[in-house]
Amino acid sequence: MKRFLVPVMATMFYIVVLLSGCDLVFPGADESDNESSSLGKKYLSEFENKWCYQRLNSDLKLGYGEIYTAVKDGFENDETVTISDSENDTRHDYIGLRIELSKPLRNQDDSKRLYTAFVSDNPQFFYIGNTYSYEGYRSGQTNYYNVFCLVYTMSARERAAASSNLEYTISKIMTKLYRAGPADQFEKELMLHDELVGICSYENKATQTDDPAALYPTAFTAYGALVEGRAVCEGYARAMQLLLHRAGIECTLVNGKDHNGVAHMWNMVTIDGRNYHLDPTWNDASDRIHHSYFNITTYEIRQFHTIDNDNIGIDTCTARDANYYIRKGRQLDTVRQDDIAKVIADAVLQGETMVDLRFTKDTFAGARLFINNRRLLIQKVNVFLKDAGITMWNYEDYNVNDMYYTLTIYKAEGQS
Fold this sequence. Notes:
By secondary structure, the chain is of the alpha+beta class.
């Protein structure tokens, strides 16, 4: 589940209510060279390499920097912003931020583009709500938009406490990551992904209401996923993005629909210079981790996802080197029981308590029959473990993904 963007026009005041955070409408990068203001550059090192920012033209980059500075510098303050909608004759006051841009924007599309780029790049600003407005004036026959009003979901005191809790959680995860000392980007990504999926559960209550963003606002954020441990797909994707950013790995959001036509959000991640699709929500099946959607190609993701046409910087992914099953040696094209048992035995020897395997279409059914025969499988695996003096742990059930031909077995709970 993700939120949707619905524009409402007011007389020289333009209000946009974001109920999904998913309609990305960015053109390619512009080569114009307008100078950035000092405010626009104040925190440049924090965002100059971010995915959406890099694909904005120079005018929008300037506005992006000014918004970033205003959000950072105004973090401890509560400001009231009034958003007016003359079409519906309504006015509402919110806690938020009013930002004057040094270079006015020329059209509503640029205003929408700037806002969406900013919130798409910055999951750490989880308290920016799903409503914003842009104000402007007319000169001759041209409209100019020179004011942004952001709406916050938390007061200054609340967001300070929430940000502290989020940073504490991230710090614990990153400390664990660096102590483990993963050797490369793939291993870092894998560990962070598994940590997120282990922490978070899907917030099913949000799917049972007509206004989930209002009733469960944190479920759409990295804070909800990492601190509260409850999120919808947007929260999973933003948390994954935030963790990967902290590890120095490029990552953005992908908007689309699932196989039932329901709005969905996942990630695109850059590993060793190549892009892959990563869906942490769908890798958290019934709170049991697997890796069916870990670093897959565009062709593979499109089997059961539809990618929106207006995403920014989402190219066609063809690389397979960093796919979980290929990198881990868990991609099998065999029904030979000894071959399957050997791979499982190697995983048990490495101390793994979950073994995730992918088969081909032709071998999947036969492999599933073997894994379903627990006694036989454990007997076969133990043949390979005999010299090590250990035996395989028992497993009570296993996860089946017949869309991507994956089978995942889990060590039974309570075993030493």
